[in-house]
Write a structure and sequence with these properties.
The chain is α+β, with helices and mostly antiparallel strands. It has 9 helices and 8 strands. Strands 1, 2, 3, 4, 5, 6, 7 and 8 form an 8-stranded antiparallel β-sheet that branches. The chain is elongated.
């Protein structure tokens, strides 16, 4: 009995050894391909000449976890399909079958790897991605001013809540911005406008200092007050909505997301988008297991054809799956045609159905 168990363990180790390289390589390579788009966006939207290179690298590293949401299912498909295809091509599957191992027994390690990646996927989307998203947003805020400086031109407007700001010119000396021809507009209430104009000012470490501003208060079409003060200090960090992306639901942990959903329902708001994001985290995690089994099954099904026939078909199904997911979550779910839970799990049902059909009479 012990000897038979050792043989069984050897089969699992053998399958795992074949899976490990394409599984990890596929996950990382695809993630890096997605990262290229992130890098292109970063360099397109911001002039990074004045931003420390270490900050840029840190941002790229922090942006990586959000792409694992997509690459974990794809990586496990690569691992399962290529491993089984390689074993079949070398005649090792035939030897295992001759030794009495069923198809499902050979695929046991494939399923275990799929479950492991499902756990990793859920942990990544629930904990790692929200943390990394907040840190990357913080990093962009900290270095956003430095990145935006070369893009400032004469009469360039900027959103600085509660003000709309316009600067005639901006000059950087080390970590301080020197501003000229400053114009700030504030609307404290309907029908009332405060206009601040000043010849000079500075920005340093989140503090805006406007020197000798003239304040004009306009109500309707009438100028009701003109006043000059020595200094106006705005103690807040710059908010560059023109350059930075807004926070998204994926930047919330699963616990925070569920709390947001419950709070929205208490005040009568239908948080459909939040619910879709919440259920999608579980659905995509389950997809890792589904893709692992599907990749192995297709490799078995088409092992008598060309070497990579099953693998190529798996890639086609993965492509179809992601299109189904986009349609289900972004169109069907968000328009309320089905419940958010159904919209999130509909693509998983597609994978289960396809795998069941491909498994028919596989033995």
């Amino acid at each position: 009995m012990a000897g038979g168990e050792r043989v069984i363990r050897k089969v699992d180790k053998y399958v795992l050894k074949e899976m490990i390289v394409p599984l990890i390589a596929g996950t990382l390579v695809i993630a890096l391909l997605f990262m290229v788009n992130e890098i292109i966006w970063l360099f397109k939207e911001l002039d990074l000449n004045s931003v420390p290179r270490g900050a840029v690298l840190k941002y790229i590293f922090l942006a990586l976890p959000k792409w694992f949401f997509l690459t974990f299912p794809m990586g496990v498909t690569f691992g399962a399909s290529l491993a089984i295809s390689r074993l079949a091509r070398e005649g090792e599957i035939t030897a295992m079958r001759a030794a009495g191992y069923s198809v499902w027994r050979i695929l046991r390690m494939v399923g275990i790897c799929g479950m492991a990646f499902a756990g990793l996927s859920f942990y990544n989307s629930s904990q790692v991605t929200p943390w990394a998203g907040k840190e990357s947003a913080k990093l962009l805020r900290e270095f956003g001013v430095l990145a935006a400086i070369p893009k400032f031109e004469r009469n360039q407007s900027l959103n600085l809540p509660p003000y709309a700001a316009n600067f005639g010119s901006v000059e950087q000396r080390e970590q301080v911005l020197f501003l000229k021809d400053i114009l700030l507009i504030e609307r404290p209430k309907e029908g009332q406008v405060y206009v601040y104009s000043a010849p000079t000012g500075t920005y340093s470490k989140g503090v805006w200092t406007i020197q000798d501003p003239v304040i004009r208060v306009i109500e309707g079409e009438s100028l009701v007050m003109v006043n000059r003060v020595k200094e106006l200090v705005i103690n807040q960090r710059i908010v560059i909505e023109d350059f930075l992306r807004s926070a998204e639901a994926r930047d919330r942990s699963t616990v925070e997301l569920w709390r947001d959903i419950q709070d929205a329902k208490k005040v009568g708001v239908q948080p459909r988008n939040l619910e879709i994001e919440f259920y999608s985290r579980y659905a995509v995690a389950a997809t890792c297991l589904g893709f692992a089994i599907m990749g192995g099954v297709l490799a078995f099904r088409f092992r008598r054809g060309s070497a990579f026939q099953g693998f190529l078909i798996s890639l086609i199904i993965v492509w179809i799956y992601f299109n189904v997911q986009i349609i289900a979550t972004e169109v069907i779910g968000r328009n309320g045609w089905v419940t958010p839970m159904a919209a999130a799990w509909l693509p998983v049902g597609f994978i289960v159905l396809f795998t069941a059909v491909a498994s028919w009479r596989l033995e």
